[in-house]
Write a structure and sequence with these properties.
This protein is of the alpha+beta class and about 400 residues long. It has four domains: about 90 residues, no CATH class; about 80 residues, Thrombin, subunit H (Beta Barrel), CATH 2.40.10; about 100 residues, Beta Barrel (Thrombin, subunit H); about 100 residues, PDZ domain (Pdz3 Domain, Roll). Helix content is about 30%, strand content about 35%. The longest helix is centred in the first third of the chain and has 29 residues.
């Protein structure tokens, strides 16, 4: 809907208002005719809008006309906001192509092929955000701009824990997307997903709402992805790493996965998840500055324990992490931890399925002293560890 049509809708409101003030239909018609004379040469769309307005005025009361005009203006506002948001962000959305290494098998060398995902340019320096799982294990990365132009790119750093990777593209930057405040999002808010599903349908736009915030997803790697945004905007393979955009044209999330089956193998629809933009901003800033994310480090390898595992192996604790290995000279060794110890609490937080070890560990900072409750054989002891700095556990 263009500006001219919006003018005619406003004429409807003026006519209705004048009718409501005293039933002065003549005044409304006078306004209408003067405007019609001024815009006599408008397009066919204007004529259609005029006819619609006249039809609404003749049989309807002022209140009805006002309600119809208000509803139409609200619809136009949302539609215009969506198209404007897509226009402002679209040129900053890219397709990410990651070349995988060849695989040696008993039948010879098999090409590793390529994997594709999406990404979004976030700075004039050419930094691009995508998912870690899009580029993980790749030997070469390139990006394709919205106009089809291919560019070389390099991986600046990745963070598997948050599933974020930062690339840097070569050449001139066509557009830059801005990151919004994901903490202000509310369920029901309209959002737009942009990406390249299947790697072929470049800059596909889908629209939905924020279904929920603060979701936790089990990665199957011993930790949860926390604080995730849930959306029903369609996300498919290849959308990973692309932006989730609000109506202001700001990136409020990075799309990462969609669930296709639920408990018991039930098929599900409209369960997409995105990494909040505030997490993206914090992680990407560290990667750009340091090449990696600085996280607290204890220096242990662990196996998570739950009641089923504890019963099977007759362990002295139902929840916690069993230490299978301690690095020499690590903070854990200096704290007096031993292989076979079970850490059950960190600063009073019980380690369980809702609070996995890595999630709890990463709430602390390097250099911080943390109280540990440890089960050693069948005794419970208290230890303190001063966390180091690193990228592991």
């Amino acid at each position: 809907m263009n500006r001219k049509t919006l003018l005619y809708l406003l004429f409807v409101v003026l006519i209705a208002a004048s009718a409501g003030l005293g039933g002065a239909a003549i005044g409304g018609v006078t306004v209408y005719r003067s405007m019609e004379a001024e815009f006599a040469s408008l397009s066919q769309e204007l004529a259609t809008a005029k006819a619609t307005a006249e039809a609404a005025i003749q049989p309807s009361s002022a209140a009805q006309v006002l309600q119809a005009a208000t509803t139409e203006l609200q619809t136009i506002s949302v539609d215009t906001a969506i198209t404007s948001a897509v226009e402002s962000v679209g040129q900053a959305v890219v397709t990410v192509v990651a070349t995988q290494p060849d695989q040696r098998t008993m039948w010879g060398v098999v090409s590793g092929g390529t994997a594709s995902g999406s990404g979004v340019i976030i700075s004039e320096d050419g930094y691009v955000i995508t998912n870690n799982h899009v580029v993980e294990g790749s030997i070469q990365v390139s990006i394709t701009l919205a106009n089809g132009e291919e560019r070389a790119a390099q991986i600046i750093g990745t963070d598997p824990f948050s599933d974020i990777a930062v690339l840097k593209m070569e050449g001139e930057v066509p557009a830059v997307a801005s990151l919004g405040n994901s903490d202000s999002l509310k369920p029901g808010e309209t959002v737009i997903a942009i990406g390249s599903p299947l790697g072929d349908f470049v800059n596909t736009v889908t629209v939905g709402v924020i279904s929920a915030t603060g979701r936790s997803l089990d990665t199957g790697e011993g930790y949860l992805m926390e604080g995730m945004l849930q959306t029903d905007a369609a996300i498919n393979q290849g959308n990973s790493g692309g932006p989730l955009v609000n109506l202001a044209g700001q990136v409020v999330g990075i799309n990462t996965l969609i669930l296709r089956s639920g408990t018991g193998g039930n098929n599900v629809e409209g369960l997409g998840f995105s990494i909040p933009s505030n997490t993206v901003a914090a992680v990407s800033q560290q990667i750009i500055q340091n090449g990696s994310v600085i996280r607290p480090y204890m220096g242990i390898q662990v196996q998570a324990i739950d009641p089923t595992l504890a019963a099977r192996y007759n362990l002295p604790a139902e929840w916690g992490v069993y230490i299978t290995q301690i690095e020499s000279g690590s903070p854990a060794e200096q704290a007096g931890l031993q292989e076979g110890d079970i850490i059950t609490h960190m600063n009073g937080i019980e380690l369980n399925d809702e609070h996995p070890y890595e999630n709890v560990l990463y709430t602390f900072s390097p250099g911080q002293t943390v109280d540990l409750k440890v089960v050693r054989r069948y005794d419970t002891i208290d230890l303190q560890v001063v966390l180091g700095q690193g990228n592991g556990s």
